[in-house]
Amino acid sequence: MDECVRFLNESKFMQDFRSALFTRIVPMMKDIGLWGPKIRKAYEQMGIIGYCDTDVERLSENDQLVAERFERDIRGRMAEIEAVAAG
């Protein structure tokens, strides 16, 4: 069991997941004023203090672009499906 947990925690998937998660959480905590000495110390101990300077606005703009691209792709696929169904 311990070996499985260790493997999962060290996997590329979990590294990417943590990066995506803390890229959002850490700068938001700073932006909303929850950035006291205890939080900074905890983030330093967790090795995630570097995320505090992430440009959240840029991330949000990119999220919007990704969502628009996704919606455009879905509309295109639905049009293809409807064309095939119409025969």
Shape descriptor: flat
Q: Report the strand count.
A: 0
Order of helices and strands: HHHH
Radius of gyration of CA atoms, rounded to a whole number: 20 Å
Average of the residue pLDDT scores: 92
Number of helices: 4
The largest pleated sheet is described as:
none
Termini separation (Å)?
Answer: 54 Å
Uncertain residue segments:
none
Helix content: over 70%
Give the percentage of residues in beta strands.
Answer: under 5%
What number of domains? Answer: 1
Q: Would you tell me the structural class of the helices and strands?
A: mainly alpha
Short description:
The protein has 87 residues and is mostly helical. Helix content is 79%, strand content 0%.
Give an overview in words:
The chain is an all-alpha fold. It has one domain. Helix content is 79%, strand content 0%. The radius of gyration is 20 Å and the shape is flat. It starts with a helix and ends with a helix.
